[in-house]
Write a structure and sequence with these properties.
By secondary structure, the protein is of the alpha/beta class. It has nine helices and 20 strands. Bound molecules: S-adenosylmethionine (SAM). InterPro entries: MeTrfase_TrmA_CS (IPR030391), NA-bd_OB-fold (IPR012340), SAM-dependent_MTases_sf (IPR029063), TRAM_dom (IPR002792), U5_MeTrfase_fam (IPR010280).
Length: 447
């Protein structure tokens, strides 16, 4: 790919284009609305968060809607930081061989950046190359933050390649703006973009979504279609109130049926529950697993991964599922009720582990050391406090399910400092056409 000797600053819509002195701080305001800075940029690599890295006069510019190897004209949208700016591609000057027509015209680079629907930020990239880029992000994070070299590939979910990576979302959240218009937010903004279609959603979700309608009040709309085909549409006002008691729905995974609230947490990809069940079952080292030990399912939700362990190791397996949301724990208790060794606890994981660290008996401590811990934290990861408490309890093995590889890499770095080694990791593309990727990693105590 030919490279220009130097990116040229340009002014939008005319021959003469504006630049700013390198390192100049422009305060908290974004680039002036009527005088946007436009830059010609050579895009070098992928960054975490669905953006790509270019440089302008020594400063990093994070650019959206492009990919490595492209030359683009990009409009600067954020100059608040000294060390980096943010910009949106407005025109592709030299496309990559991996560029495709966007799978969602509402998110395409042909639209003005403010009118592009968010949530499909890799939709212009060939599907296999999206996975290469996700791998690059994982490998870089593991190398920098955990000192681990990753050679794994990012695996597709069943059926995604055949469908071109569309029609996988079983739940969608739409927004309603002050004028009553319905749609997703634009990328990196709270501006609602009305859309005609939702190609990442399964057909039944798209059909149930009130696209093109008007609402009388601002807020959000959650559209969910269960694996059994039940449709639920929950409207919330701007302060998040649903206006009626939460609806209970059911999801089926293999022979199990899970009850949960329609707006409660459930894996978004229609195949994710079974893919993650199998991945977690496969990530446990049998030789280290003790069904009578103090086994834990942390951030347990309605019990999906506790059930994965129970179904693999049998009904005598003891496991305690810990979840902070009380209604969710109630559902987990019902979902796991047929299984004698399963317990559910409503608590924040960090509080629960601190309690175990300070109050458990010598016998419990021994059973914890012999235990297996599955943890599936939210996007922010487990965090330092939880990692330290967990490492202090020293369970025999951990299975870490991560929806943010960078937060995982940070936690892995801390776990390695505290005596754990990475025994294996898989990366699963459960979010095609977005930058997101799921990881399932096995860690064992190094002693
Ligand atoms: C990524 S979901 C995983 C749920 C479950 N493992 C599954 O696959 O369905 C994370 C869950 O952790 C819960 N959670 C978030 N922060 C928590 C905390 N500090 N302690 C306990 N649970 C937490 C959320 O309510 C959510 O149910």
């Amino acid at each position: 790919m030919p490279r220009s000797p130097r990116p040229r600053p340009q002014r939008s819509g005319g021959g003469h284009r504006r630049t700013q002195a390198p390192g100049r701080r422009t305060g908290s305001a974004p680039a002036a609305e009527h005088d946007p800075i436009e830059l010609e940029l050579d895009v070098a690599s992928v960054a975490h968060g669905g953006v790509f890295v270019a440089r302008h006069e020594g400063r990093v510019v994070f650019v959206s809607d492009t990919m490595p190897g492209e030359r683009v004209l990009a409009r600067v949208s954020d100059t608040r930081h000294d060390r980096f700016w943010r910009a949106e591609t407005v025109r592709v000057l030299q496309p990559s061989e991996h560029r495709r027509e966007h799978v969602w015209s509402a998110a395409s680079v042909e639209r003005d950046p403010a009118e592009r629907a968010g949530g499909a930020e890799f939709g212009h990239i060939e599907l296999g190359h999206q996975r290469t880029l996700k791998h690059d992000v994982i490998a870089d994070a593991l190398h920098r933050m955990a000192g681990v070299e990753d050679t794994s590939v990012v695996e597709p979910a069943p059926g995604d390649d055949e469908r071109g990576g569309i029609r996988w979302r079983s739940r969608v959240r739409l927004q309603v703006d002050d004028a009553g218009a319905i749609g997703p937010f634009a990328a990196r903004s709270h501006r609602v973009v009305p859309v005609d279609d939702l190609p990442l959603a399964i057909d039944a979700v798209e059909r149930a979504a009130p696209l093109g309608e008007q609402q009388t009040r601002s807020g959000s709309i959650d559209v969910t279609v269960t694996s059994e085909g039940f449709v639920s549409v929950t409207r919330r006002d701007a302060d998040g109130q649903a206006g009626r008691r939460p609806l209970v729905i059911h999801e089926r995974v293999g022979d199990r049926r899970f009850a949960l609230e329609a707006t409660g947490f459930w894996q978004v990809h229609r195949k994710a529950p079974e893919v993650l069940t199998a991945a977690v079952q496969g990530a446990v080292d049998d030789s280290l697993f003790d069904p009578r030990a103090f086994n834990l399912d942390l951030y347990g939700g309605v019990g999906l991964l506790a059930a994965a362990i129970g179904d693999r190791f049998g009904p005598t397996t003891r496991i305690t599922s810990v979840e902070s949301d009380e209604n969710t724990t109630d559902h987990a208790a019902a979902n796991l009720a047929d299984w004698i060794g399963a317990q559910t606890v409503t608590a924040r994981v960090e509080h629960y582990l601190r309690d175990l660290a300070t109050r458990s008996s010598a016998g419990e401590r021994a059973r914890l050391r012999a235990g297996t811990v599955v943890l599936d934290p939210p996007r922010s990861g487990a965090g330092r406090e939880t990692v330290e408490l967990l490492a202090g309890l020293a369970p025999a093995q951990l299975v870490y399910v991560a929806c943010d590889p960078v937060a995982f890499a940070r936690d892995l770095g801390w776990l390695r400092e505290r005596g754990y080694e990475l025994a294996g990791a898989r990366a699963l593309d459960l979010f095609p056409h977005t930058h997101h990727v799921e990881m399932v990693a096995s860690l064992v105590r190094a002693d």
